[in-house]
Amino acid sequence: MLNADESEKAGQSPIAYVFQDAHLLPWRNVLNNVALPLELMRVERGERLEASRRTIDLVGLADAADRYPNQLSGGMRMRVSLARAMVTEPSLLLLDEPFAALDEITRERLDEQLRQLWSAAGMTVVFVTHSTNEAAFLAQRAIVLSKRSGRIIEDRMLELPAQRTGPLRATPGFAGEVRALYDALERGER
Fold first, then answer.
1. Which of 3, 84, 100, 183 lies 20 to 30 angstroms, CA to CA, from 131?
2. CATH number for 53
3. What domain range is 70 assigned to?
């Protein structure tokens, strides 16, 4: 394991963030937005662009590398933001409601893609969401907090298969996990 200084020199960062808004730089195309963290780490230009192209491909945007943020849909902008976080190959990825403003179909597709990326990269992911459906689909472990004071209401290991695809959402087991998380949220309101 590399220490923090060695990780940064190798173009890796121990922690990466994806926020609720994509926060892309409008004057940079997709490729250069994704390359930004590596540029700030002073990774050599050719290496950072190659790493950025690989990561853009991972999130399914290879054909959009030359586009600018104003030429992208909301879902595409969030995938660019996700690629920008993942380009540093973090060991911990923190996401704060990154798909909250998206339509349901786009959100579910991005949830599936995030699970695939997480599985392939083997990193730890902490995902904040207000959606019990999203939490049940994404999490191996869900922690439900109270509305005020952030008290833990429930710390639950989800009893769902490790490999998850869209059809899982229509199963009784999935519905049961969503219900359990919803019940915990209601207890947190009291």
1. 84
2. 3.40.50.300
3. 10-128
Task: Give CA angle at 119 (4, 13), nearest 5°.
Answer: 15
Query: Whole-angstrom Cα distance, residue 169 to residue 131?
Result: 13
Give the tens place of pLDDT for each residue, 2-60.
Answer: 344 444 445 566 899 999 898 999 999 999 999 999 999 999 999 999 999 999 998 88
Beta bridge partners of 17: 94
Domain count of the chain? 2
Helix (H) or strand (E) holding 125: strand 124-128
105 and 177 belong to one structural domain = no
pTM, 2 dp = 0.83
Q: Residue 177: what are its φ and ψ, rounded to 5°?
A: -70, -40
